[in-house]
Write a structure and sequence with these properties.
Layout: H1 26-39, E1 46-48, H2 52-58, H3 65-75, E2 82-84, H4 85-117, E3 124-126, H5 127-137, H6 143-153, E4 160-162, H7 163-171
Helix pairs in contact: 1-4, 4-7
């Protein structure tokens, strides 16, 4: 990784072009910069590699000690115990991309499940079928609970559940 002159964090304007190869959005890059800056208390433009585990935790990724050690070794090539924003962004971007791929995979699985229930390909399933599905998922639901859930899921009161309503129900 090319070393970049370190500027104090408050002076560092994000050069989005420099990070274009990371395949993350400008909003994600700004979020990463905010996270980095919150750990760069002395505004030196670098943070301790000891913070990697805590930062990845904030991003929703719990790692084992071995995984964390491997990442630190990879990021801190020169062994100085600190990482620049550039190094941090390259590391964190990998985890952001993984999360997007996971989300896409979950949506594909949900879409496949929806298609199984929408046998005629009409783009919706009836609330009676949804009631059966919910009973299968949670056999202890009372009829009143089921009715309340159906009311919340069938937001347009059409008596059917379309893909968007189904997705919202499954994702929460």
């Amino acid at each position: 990784m090319a070393k970049v002159a370190k500027a104090p964090a408050e002076d560092m304007e994000l050069d989005f072009e420099a990070f274009s190869k990371l395949d993350i959005s400008k909003d994600q890059l700004k979020m990463l910069k905010q996270i980095f800056d919150s750990f760069d208390l002395e505004q030196k433009g670098e943070i301790s590699v000891d913070m990697i585990g805590q930062i990845l935790d904030m991003l929703g990724h719990r790692l084992t000690a071995e995984e964390l050690q491997a990442i630190v070794k990879e990021i801190d090539e020169d062994g100085n115990g600190v990482m620049s924003f550039e190094e941090f962004a390259h590391l964190a971007a990998r985890f952001l991309v993984e999360e997007e791929e996971d989300t896409e995979a979950i949506l594909r699985e949900l879409k496949d499940a929806f298609r199984l229930y929408d046998k005629e390909g009409l783009g919706y399933i009836g609330v009676d079928l949804l009631r059966d599905i919910l009973r299968e998922l949670e056999p202890n639901l009372t009829p009143a609970d089921l009715n309340e859930m159906i009311k919340e899921i069938d937001t347009d009161n059409s008596g059917t559940v379309d893909w968007e309503e189904f997705k919202a129900m499954m994702i929460g």
